[in-house]
Every structure is written in structure tokens, then in C-alpha cells.
Amino acid sequence: MSKSVDIKELFAAGAHFGHKTSRWHPKMSPYIHSKRDGSHVIDLTKTVERLEGAINFVEDTVAGGKQVLLVGTKKQAQEPIKKAAEATGMPFVSERWLGGMLTNRSTIGGRVKYLKKLEEDMANGKLESKYNKLEVQRFQEEIDQMNHLFGGIKQMLQLPAAVFVTDVLHDVNAVREARKLHIPIVAIVDTNADPTNIDYPIPANDDAIKSLQKITDYIADAIQAGKAKAAKRQTQSEDTKEAESKKKEEK
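The chain above was modelled as a monomer; its predicted structure follows.
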């Protein structure tokens, strides 16, 4: 497994703070430690256990050469998700989940293809040679707007093998689409949400920036560890083929 989970780090990040007791979801009861000042306190020993399981799954998934889609459109989650995506090269959605991003890949894929073509034509000067400055400026504005919506999934050439979600209620549409397509979901689940809809629920505070950042960092570390394994396997495979080729030549 990649970096082991430190319960002290989770505590320092405030991952144990749940919602008001009046807003709780009964199915979160196995992950609740106690009540304090009218709010639930999450059992961080359970968080560690679940997070380690999620880390193992993510690492194994990426080691198989597959992608994990990172989703966090809530304001507090946007920066951690972008940071993780930039560090790992994984696709992400941080601004807005458009309906059909997973379930209507033909339409979304068409928009992404159009975006890439516009960027290519802008870069090689085709647009500048065919249109006046005002029209070129409008094309650039269109590119910027489309990147705002689709920039994070430009390199997602097929459906992801898993989806990581920072808030299952805020990004419920992402959860619904992944479930519809039977794509495994790894997600932070606070005390006000139903964990039974998530394949790898991580009971934790989904509002505090430090909590979101810490857990997303663990997921990013797992992705990096998986990529390292995949690269090692690729190198070993190439070395084996080269060795077999030399044997044949010697014969």
C-alpha cells in the first residue's frame, strides 16, 4: 500500500466533525463515535479503516493502467481536486457537473472533440488566417468557456474505472451516473449522507477544507503509487520481451 493513514493527521484536519444531530442519516450510525454540542463526532478509527481500503482499491485500479475521475464541485473541494488532478494527471470535474458526463459520452465526447479542434486551429494560426480579430477573440472566449466546463476531462478517452467524489450530496448527479454504469465509487461521506450507495465510503467531514485536502491527498498518493506500479510492470514486460527476443536470435 502507498502512504499509511495517520489518524493524528485526520484529527488535526478536523475530519471527525460531523453535522448537527438533527441532520444525521441513520445508516451512518456505525461510523459515529459520539455527540458533542449538538453535533455528531465521527469515529476516526473507522475512517482510517475505510480510507485504507479505498487507498488499496485506487492504487490497484491505477496499477492496472486505468483512470480515476476526481470530482469535487463544492467551493471548498475545487482547489484540492485540481491540485490532485494536476499532480497525478487524472481527469477531473471541479466547476460543474454537466448531465451526461458519464452516461452520454457521445454528446460530451463530441463537445470535447470540438474543443480540441478549436484549440488546435487557434494554435496553428488557422483561425487567425480565416477570421478577423474580433471573430478570433470570440473563438478564444468560446475556448475559455468550454475549458471551464470540459478542460478537466479532455484526456479522459474512455469511461473511468472508478470515480472519487468529495461530497456525495453536493455531487449527487456524479454518483447517480457512476452507479447507473456500475462504475465503483470512492467517496467522502459525512454524517448526513447514505453510505450504502458508495462502494468505498470514507466517513469524514466533507465541509472543512483541511479535511477535504488531507483525504484527497491520500487518494492522490494512492494514484501515484499505482502509476509507479504500472510503470514498473511495463518496464519488466519490455525487459522480458527483449530477453526472449535475444534468446531466439542466439538460437
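The chain has eight helices and eight strands.
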